[in-house]
Design a protein that fits this description.
The protein is an alpha/beta fold and about 450 residues long. It has helices at about 15-30, 50-70, 80-85, 90-95, 110-120, 165-170, 175-190, 205-210, 215-220, 240-250, 265-270, 280-290, 310-325, 350-375, and strands spanning about 5-10, 30-35, 40-45, 75-80, 100, 125, 145-150, 150-155, 170-175, 195, 230, 255-260, 295-305, 330-335, 380-390, 395-400, 410-415, 425-435, 435-440. The radius of gyration is 22 Å and the shape is globular.
């Protein structure tokens, strides 16, 4: 056969895991996997459809690939992922560049779809979302020392602004033994940093056992030889139990990093978002975590300009952000997504106001991050080495406070033995530039 296939995967890490499973399926069927789409016979675009900007990025990528197809460089474009699942046959009608479109439930049949498409048969297939496989091999697209571990699919939270339940379906946990087996396999392949992901990691196990099982799963993961850092992402605040906090506090392999997308702090806004809590309850949660895990680093996200958000409610959010001093924070202007309840609300806010509010919070966040970097000066921190920056003439890597792809780096020089990507070294922080610490490697003789 000798057909060459490339994948362009957009959006979140959960989508990236799907792409890695697609690659494995294709390779098993004899396709040659190429990194550069220009070298491929067929290119699969694993799209994101979460918010407007992500949708536009997916569309732009398809159009760019269409130019390669027009030139005769590639023969076929196949679209899958969230945008395909959400808009289905509309994609091929509106984007002439596309040859085939399949929903996430058809991912297991990707090899047949590619083969049929290259043989001139256009495919459109949208099986039930639950047909998306939770198990299967992967060809890692991350560096060999780090990987994502997806423990569940879908979401049942039904936040009023979010289309994910419509796109990905209901929440489905993987069986614990299957998760552990995959983690063991990843460790044997040299993965030292495991990033645990799902739409809501804290709901893990509720559908299997009638109660949360994340804490127990993490303890089992900690027993796997070879794993050094285990990072938990996407924790829903309502489901952060004392048991989970204690597990993170007590297990050395679990990095002291809490990713809790809060979205807002005002009780009325949260209620309209179909979320729970208020400034008081969220403050109590954050302070409880800080007490039990003294060195914890927080990442969160906020949404400004949600329908009906008053100036006073926004000011409360800004005050909350300033008070909590999240070391990592993203703030986004509300995006009205079709088929969501929030998009039908009558009190929509002007785009300029939404963005201005987000900018205000992020401007203040710069000083919070600078303060955090300042607190690291003269301290010794452990770094996972990721490479050497030829332009800056120094090494770079991440501390436990830096999740891959979303956070920054630590830059450092090294006079001793040259470290390689995947090594762990100790670095004394001497300064910082922007929001990135700078230091000297201290234990690499």
């Amino acid at each position: 056969m000798n057909y060459k296939v490339g994948i362009v995967s957009l959006g979140c890490a959960k989508n990236q895991v799907d792409a890695e499973m697609l690659l494995f399926t294709l390779k098993n069927r004899g396709f040659i996997i190429v990194n550069d789409p220009a070298d491929a016979d067929a290119v699969i675009v694993n799209t994101c459809g979460f918010i407007e900007s992500a949708k536009q990025e997916s569309i732009d990528e398809i159009i760019e690939l269409g130019k390669l197809k027009q030139e005769g460089t590639i023969k076929a474009i196949i679209v899958t992922g969230c945008l395909a699942e959400r808009y289905q046959s509309e994609i091929s009608k509106q984007l002439y560049e596309v040859d085939s479109v399949i929903g996430i439930g058809a991912n297991e049949s990707i090899a047949d779809v590619v083969l049929d498409t290259l043989n001139g048969k256009k495919c459109e297939s949208f099986p039930d979302k639950v047909c998306l496989p939770l198990e299967g091999g992967r060809i890692l697209s991350t560096p060999p020392y780090t990987a994502y571990l997806k423990i569940a699919e879908g979401c049942d939270n039904c936040c009023s602004y979010c289309a994910i339940p419509l796109i990905r379906g209901g929440f489905r946990s993987r069986k614990p033994d299957d998760v552990i087996k995959e983690a063991e396999d990843l460790a044997k392949r040299g993965v030292a940093e495991l990033n645990v992901i799902a739409q809501d990691t804290t709901r893990y196990g509720e559908d299997l056992f009638g109660k949360p099982y994340l804490a127990q799963l993490l303890k089992r993961l900690c027993k796997i030889d070879g794993l050094k850092w285990i990072r938990v992402l996407y924790c829903y605040p309502d489901r952060i139990t004392d048991e989970l906090i204690d597990a993170i506090a007590s297990e050395d392999k679990i990095v002291k990093y809490m990713d809790i997308p809060l979205q807002h702090c005002n009780g009325d806004v949260l209620k309209n978002m179909n979320r729970h809590g208020n400034r008081e309850s969220l403050t109590q949660l954050i302070n409880k975590i800080k007490t039990k895990i003294p060195d914890v680093v927080f990442r969160s996200t906020f949404i400004t300009g949600f329908p009906g958000e008053t100036e006073e409610q926004f000011e409360e959010l800004a005050e909350f952000a300033a008070e909590m001093k999240f070391q990592r924070l993203g703030c986004f202007a509300y995006s009205a997504e079709e088929d969501t309840k929030a998009a039908l609300m009558t009190d929509q806010i002007d785009d300029e106001v939404k963005q201005k509010r987000a900018d205000i919070i992020m401007e203040h966040q710069q000083s919070v991050m600078a303060e955090y970097c300042e607190s690291l000066v003269d301290k010794e921190i452990e770094i996972l080495v990721e490479g050497f920056d030829k332009l800056a003439e120094c090494y770079f890597g991440r501390s436990y406070a830096d999740a891959p792809e979303v956070d920054g780096c630590v830059f450092f020089t090294c006079d001793g033995k040259k470290p390689k990507a995947g090594d762990f070294v100790k670095v004394t922080v001497t300064d910082y530039m922007g929001c990135d610490p700078i230091g000297i490697c201290v234990n690499n003789e």
